[in-house]
Amino acid sequence: MTITIKKCALNDVQTLQAISTDTFRETFQEQNSPEHLNAYLKKAYNLNQLTQEIANPCSQFYFIYFNQELAGYLKINTDEAQSEKMDNDSLEVERIYVKKKFQKLGLGKLLINKAMEIALEQQKKKIWLGVWEDNKNAISFYRKKGFIQTGSHSFFMGDDEQVDLILTKTL
Q1: Catalytic residues
Q2: N-acetyltransferase domain: which residues (predicted)?
Q3: Residues 41, 77, 18, CA angle at the centre, nearest 5°?
């Protein structure tokens, strides 16, 4: 078993788009209408949007491979790239997704550990993320990693307003 984490570059944008749409659809298609899901995917994961995100120096993407097969990815943000107004001593985990067939293998733990490692390298004091209030498995995972709820915000799946819990961990 070989697990590799690789930082994404601009030339990875099409691969990033594919893993982003695949994992988001796998994670949320059963709880959302096809119309809302497709509207969100078109907005969040089109090539222009992802190219801008990869090019932003305050955002970083990482792929995780399991036996050379792309299994998931991570997106982190600092400073003005954070999706909520936070202190400059905070790092946001905006996206962390693992394909269903690779779940329960510890890959999510490796990705969140990678985010914490980067936060410490950048001398951040907090790491935070938003997680859908109905994603009980993810909430349980983050709580086991020491995250606590510090707030909430609206998240729009198409025009369907949903609630994300803000979970924070002090480093």
Answers
A1: 142
A2: 3-171
A3: 30
